[in-house]
Amino acid sequence: MAISSIYRLLSSSIRFKNPNFSFPFTTVSSAEKYWTHLQKNCSNPEKTLNRVGVKLDTSCVNEVLQRCALNQPLLGLRFFIWAGLQPNYRHSSYMYSKACKVFEINQNPRVVTDVIEAYRVDGCLVSIRTFKVVLNLCREAKLADEGLWVLRKMKEFNCRPDTTVYNVVIRLFCEMGDMDVAAGLRREMGLIDLYPDMITYVALIKGFCDAGRLEDACGLFKAMRGHGCLPNAVAYSALLDGVCRFGNVERALELLQEMEKEGGDSNPNVVTYTSIIQFFCENGQSMEALGILDQMVACGCAPNRVTISTLIKGLCTEGRVEEAYKLIDKVAAGGSVSNSDCYSSLVMSLLRIKKLEEAEKLFRRMLATAVRPDSLASSALIRGLCLEEGRVIDGFHLYDEIERLGCLSSIDSDIYSVLLAGLCQESHLMEAAKLAGMMVERGIKLKAPYMGDIVEHLKNSGEKELVSHITSMGR
């Protein structure tokens, strides 16, 4: 392909887009008013913020936080906490995450203690809801020690912690793996006439299982009933997951039967059954796992994509590919998982067991019968073809076919770089130019690890102008 042709192909597809992001006028105005007020009332700003009298929303709060981030993080954090207490506004999980990022709370946990101390120095009226906003920040930033410190400080402000407050701190220590502190906090609740709820017990059971303390998890599970908290499917599933991880198949099946017998809130759900199916598959017992699937369906619980993918992977790993096809036929008849999900999982499993040819045939059969492959299957197969000696052009043709069928959204962006590198290495310059043009047109950047090899091959082939465009794609 002539250099000038390649240049025209690439040049025609280049579009530089500079979208302008702007907030609605009312939001900017609200943020500006809050910001101006904070500058004039740095001491005890909570007393007068209500006088601003403009609407709060996510964009407004976010802009105020950004303005405070560099030089006034404590003031910004106080505004954030105040905003979370207003009747017509509530922080989303996104906003808690944003606040942690803006004020770098993970790297600078002292800001949490500073804000509580600032309340004390200013003589602020602090409610339990204030502490809950602070604790939610600790939860988002995974600050267990600071969360416990906040819990202990509540007494100084005449605030009595409730079960929700304890649950946040208990869960933080469970996630950190410090089960002695977590269990101690549960016992402490009883001393102040608070009762652990289902959230408390599930966090502790899961925490004990994650820490390898299965006996403690089982003991706590039994103690729940005595404390008037009947285990539900979530509690059972948490314990069951731990039992399966430690390889106690008899105990796992006993728990499952117990759940099925009790019914109601304890009835096993799809997560419960999938945990046991995964356990059997990971231990080379996929046929036994199929029996659990039958049991699951008989109890009126439909499998989901994860359930079926786990079974397909297990069957293929054991060389039972025909059983995997039979499973898909059975599931397709039930309608709980789509043909697309089932066959995409099978393509992935065939690739894992090095059956590239069979995976490719199945994939092409999917395209021919309008069964849309998912992102993982599409990307994995193209990658597999590119890595197979002499088959990168087949990978490109498959990509081309997927594009014609309108399935390009199911290809990961890094696959473009893999494919382009392979085409350049095998001197398929016409196809490389076409792919590069598509990448430029769609704004897909060339991944850095592939840049050097691609540029070197093109230079050696005398394609200097194509090199220029390829290089600009990586910037």
TrEMBL record:
<dbReference type="Pfam" id="PF13041">
    <property type="entry name" value="PPR_2"/>
</dbReference>
<feature type="repeat" description="PPR">
    <location>
        <begin position="304"/>
        <end position="338"/>
    </location>
</feature>
<feature type="repeat" description="PPR">
    <location>
        <begin position="127"/>
        <end position="161"/>
    </location>
</feature>
<feature type="repeat" description="PPR">
    <location>
        <begin position="412"/>
        <end position="446"/>
    </location>
</feature>
<feature type="repeat" description="PPR">
    <location>
        <begin position="162"/>
        <end position="196"/>
    </location>
</feature>
<protein>
    <submittedName>
        <fullName>Putative Tetratricopeptide repeat-like superfamily protein isoform 1</fullName>
    </submittedName>
</protein>
<feature type="repeat" description="PPR">
    <location>
        <begin position="339"/>
        <end position="373"/>
    </location>
</feature>
<comment type="similarity">
    <text>Belongs to the PPR family. P subfamily.</text>
</comment>
<dbReference type="Pfam" id="PF12854">
    <property type="entry name" value="PPR_1"/>
</dbReference>
<feature type="repeat" description="PPR">
    <location>
        <begin position="269"/>
        <end position="303"/>
    </location>
</feature>
<dbReference type="InterPro" id="IPR011990">
    <property type="entry name" value="TPR-like_helical_dom_sf"/>
</dbReference>
<keyword id="KW-0677">Repeat</keyword>
<dbReference type="InterPro" id="IPR002885">
    <property type="entry name" value="PPR_rpt"/>
</dbReference>
<feature type="repeat" description="PPR">
    <location>
        <begin position="374"/>
        <end position="409"/>
    </location>
</feature>
<dbReference type="Pfam" id="PF01535">
    <property type="entry name" value="PPR"/>
</dbReference>
<feature type="repeat" description="PPR">
    <location>
        <begin position="232"/>
        <end position="266"/>
    </location>
</feature>
<feature type="repeat" description="PPR">
    <location>
        <begin position="197"/>
        <end position="231"/>
    </location>
</feature>
